[in-house]
Design brief:
The chain has 168 residues and is an all-alpha fold. It has one domain. Helices cover 80% and strands 0% of the residues. The chain is built from seven helices and no strands. The longest helix has 36 residues.
Length: 168
Amino acid sequence: MQLPAFDISITSAFWGLVIAVPCSIVGFMGTIVPVIPGTAIIFAGFLFYGWMTGFQSLGAGFFAGQVVLVAFSYLVDFWASAWGVRRYGGSKAAARGAFLGSFLVFVIGPAGLVAGPLIGAFLGEWFMGEEMKKALHASLGSFWGFFGGTILKLVIATAMVGWFVSAI
């Protein structure tokens, strides 16, 4: 008895989606939870799908654009907190402190993306001789900047997935 023939491309696309869809879901969670590298996981799922399908529907332009979006999403992590500090009336020193504090992610892990800018903005204002109330206000700005950055990363992740869906 002969088994039915299966189209390899359909089977490969199916298995590619079996990985790409959960990666996209986990990636969306990662844009909210600092512990998970959201857009990088989404990209990895797309890369797996491309590999499984022989890169037939996802070309170099698609992947180059996705790399730009992933890089931009990580820049947002560092930039958004400093922007929030300035928006809340913090000084340039507080904004620099929030930006530099973002690098605590490399020292204390993902919690550094939230705690680092808070601490950095506070210290930036405080070392400039501002009152504790203003320093705390600048820290609050870094939190709201982080929140705004999270919203922007969700938009980026949605654009990535939308592009993927339209490309396949």
